[in-house]
Automatic annotation (TrEMBL), chain A:
Domain Fe/B12 periplasmic-binding: 38-298
Stated family: Belongs to the bacterial solute-binding protein 8 family.
Protein name: Iron ABC transporter substrate-binding protein
Annotated organism of origin: Paracoccus tegillarcae
InterPro entries attached to this UniProt entry: ABC_transptr_periplasmic_BD (IPR002491), Bact_iron-sidero_bind (IPR051313), FatB (IPR033870)
Transport as UniProt keyword: yes
Listed SUPFAM superfamilies: Helical backbone' metal receptor (SSF53807)
GO biological process: iron coordination entity transport
Gene Ontology CC terms, in alphabetical order: outer membrane-bounded periplasmic space
CDD domains tied to this protein: FatB
Record's keyword annotation contains Iron: yes
TrEMBL record, chain B:
Alphabetized Pfam families for the sequence: FecCD
Lipid bilayer topology: Multi-pass membrane protein
Subcellular location: Cell membrane
Keyword Signal annotated: yes
Species of origin: Paracoccus tegillarcae
Cellular component aspect of the GO annotation: plasma membrane
Primary location: membrane
Signal peptide span: 1-22
Keywords: Cell membrane, Membrane, Signal, Transmembrane, Transmembrane helix, Transport
GO molecular function: transmembrane transporter activity
Protein family according to the UniProt entry: Belongs to the binding-protein-dependent transport system permease family. FecCD subfamily.
Protein name per UniProt: Iron ABC transporter permease
GO biological process: siderophore-iron import into cell
Amino acid sequence: MKAFLCALALTLPTTLHAQNVSIDSAAGPAEVAVAPAKVVALDFAALDTLDALGVAVAGRPDFTPPAYLADAVTGIPTVGTLFEPDFEALAVMAPDLIVAGGRSQTQVPALSKLAPTIDMTISGEDLVNQIKSRIDAYGTIFEKTEQAAQLKTRLDAAMSETAAAVSDKGDALILLTHGGKISAYGANSRFGWLHGEVGLTEAVPNLEAGNHGEAVSFEFVADADPDWLLVIDRGAAVGQEGEAAAATLDNPLIAATKAGQNGQIIYLDAAAMYLAGGGIQSIMLTLEQLKTAFAGANS
Amino acid sequence: MLRLATIIGLALLLLASLSVGAADLGAQDDGGLFLMLVSRVPRTAAALLAGAGLALSGAVVQLAVQNRLVEPGLTGTPESAMAGLLAVTLIDPGAALMVKMIVASLAAVVGTGGFLILARHIPRQDPVMLPLVGLIYAGILGAGVTAVAWSTDLLQYLGAWQAGEFSGVLRGRYELLWVIALAAVLLYLAADRITLLGLGEDRARSLGLDARQTMLAALVLVAVMVSATVVTVGALPFVGLVVPNIISRWRGDHLRANLPWIALAGGLAVLASDVIGRVIRWPYEIPAGAIFAVVGAAIFLWLLYAAPAARSDHG
């Protein structure tokens, strides 16, 4: 049905574009007008994927973007923060479509009164399938099904390459550092796809972790003694300097772990993981980083 | 008898703090010595020092404004220390810990001084008036700090300073807290003067005390102790309110004689909160500040409810 609609949309003259298509959003199936002209994206994952598809947006959140998206968003007007859209600016702009999600998910009902809004949140488990579903949806809306298919193929290839690179290289623990403190993330967390879908063994199985991870002590990491530490620096993710992750982890307890002794502490691109997690470019970047790091290690 | 019970309680708590943690001491190659030195001993010392510092600060502030219901959290001290920290973080993010500490202390002196000036103009008939004003004052300062942090994307940092906890404490990460021990010694030397301050400025002056100077010295000590805590482990509300009240109810208001007890009880209260926070979701952590806030709130309500009817001056 979807393919048929897309094909139909592509063949129809542009004057008939006010037609609706059905896409899968985080809130279930949604009806959206095809090829909206003025699009606002309130989430970096959405900005990321739209940029990869070559869709230009007319508004974005007022927040320092991840470095790889910096060029893509310069010059685009801002419409509120990641959490709180600027409703007045949006009303003036009168967009044809608002892509919300993630940190702005709670604002979807309010935004819907203003303009057609879709909730494109990507959360927790089954991340890769959600990313693909979003790519499909954007491809349908913006009549770029071919590019969408290409992106998905590249993602599949990168996934299997990275999965091959990490297999049999030992277990890993995902840590988020903020200030001088650390939290651990498990397979059910927002970063859990590194375990569940890439196939990294968990150093601490069944880590009870919701979206925000578990506050842990350095002793916890020492006790888990993982082969690899995957570190996300929250400060760096949101553009702060000082108290970097490396300084937080530079202590005797971390140094004594297998990861510390073998130099297997990987500082993931924090902005890609933390801010734009779920964007196609973000996940490709992280997969590439993991592949490079693990490929150089002995099993 | 009481003394013996205290010593046994202290010993048990120290033992608990040294033996409880995410890692298993018995499973270490060196019998846990490394873990002890790097993690357990520093964490125990940090909790004791932070608790002692906050309890002592509370006692001093209560005497200085002659009100039992005030504590550093109600005089804008942590908030102004945070304002100082925020300023350093904005101007020079990589500044040394000592620089951050000094700026935070200076800001705390200014902020607390502001409250003391405000306190002079508050009518004293109702003892709840002053804490209320303090609550509002601290709230305004806190709102200002939050607004600046919000507009500069530093809210997450602010969160770390606001939630007092010890999970990040390791050897080399908490030593600043020993400033509290130093301040406690100075406080002990000045204790009699500060006790006089508790009689009110006029009476203190007629007893031959330079009230202004003493007030300033007390203020600086409080600011240093609170800032050291905020900089290294974050703010721990309620400790400065609950602990001195319990001690002075039990032993009266002789500050010099009470100081060791206040310091000890404050240290133990915070250490106990930290041990509980380490245990209830083992091997994960619950902030000691959150544990104490729950327990401390209960004790505070009990104090209010069980206030002796005969005492009406709250002095």
